[in-house]
């Protein structure tokens, strides 16, 4: 039979257990607006040794499968978000400027069309040279815009890698502390850091048997393993806006993950740099080279008004690489526009065979591997970037909606409901009050017994 002293302990333990429940509910309510906070609960169980009830500590309401889905979506959303921003910026720089390339190509041929009506008119010759200069400058401006976008993306990639390393260190430090004692608030912080890291680099996290989190980026690179962090490093080439290398770890364990990320904001920047920037520069260079080569060929087979054979109209490299940045009008013709080869070889001054041949290049399939005109190719280049931006925006919208759905599921599981907490608070308070009354009654009985003795 339990003694009065034993009953006093029994009531005290009951009061303590239910008071712990009240404190936990108070903590939940105070953190109702805290980002990443998971609702805590106190589990009560029978004390088989001393009797009565005991509180088994505060536990977080969590779902590992849901967390995996959220991190997976965060990586996809991050990729789409950075891609959308970068592509829209590049599309605007190429399309909205005063020297948009398709218009400048068209303007050059418009000038030739006007010259055709009066091939010996010095003012019209000068106008054609100026339009040729404007077209060459437009190629250079477009190349600078693309290169600038690439360098900006390289800069952002460095910043994102630094942020990823900070988050990885946050996870590793939390692992070290949580291995010593349970801290639900720190576990929330670790989960939030893992979600943010997934948004940056993609990948997944798991909790190992020792209670430590292991984070693996897309492609299998381990960024966090217990207390160890394999930091990301970004290497860029100031002379090449289409080059970037991402490595994880150091020394013999260093691993190139550039083409393996494929997710996260950093993956989006890598794809933009090595894909869009590289492809756009190559396409622009090829367009400049093809157009200039075609015009030079026609111009060199015609004659100027003084009877001399036409000079190359444009100075360009020997190959497509760098042609958009390097193209310029032949300085000799700039200095003397009358050297424009507007006539047919062997014909008297005033013949328009040369300028007619130059005009024919406008409709010639000189670009896109012989499938498009120069103007159409310039439009195709800009439209391609616009389509990529639209696709990225659609993907961003999709993953944003999916993220909202997953967040709603998490709120239902781990979020704090004021109504539910108030109901549980009432239950714990009544139980604590009952335990307090029980303790007071036993204490009075014990006092009466002592006074009687």
Walk me through the structure:
The chain has 453 residues and is α+β, with helices and mostly antiparallel strands. The chain has two domains: 4-61 and 415-452, no CATH class; 68-401, no CATH class. 62% of the residues lie in helices and 12% in strands. The protein has eleven helices and 13 strands. It has helices at 4-30, 64-95, 101-116, 122-178, 184-201, 264-300, 323-326, 331-335, 353-360, 374-414, 418-452; strands at 40-46, 53-60, 204-207, 213-216, 222-225, 228-229, 232-237, 240-248, 255-256, 302-303, 314-315, 328-329, 343-344. A four-stranded antiparallel β-sheet has the order 3-4-5-6. A three-stranded antiparallel β-sheet has the order 7-8-9. A two-stranded antiparallel ribbon has the order 1-2. A hairpin with a 5-residue loop joins strand 4 (213-216) and strand 5 (222-225). Helix 2 runs parallel beside helix 5 (184-201). The model has no long low-confidence stretch (mean pLDDT 87).
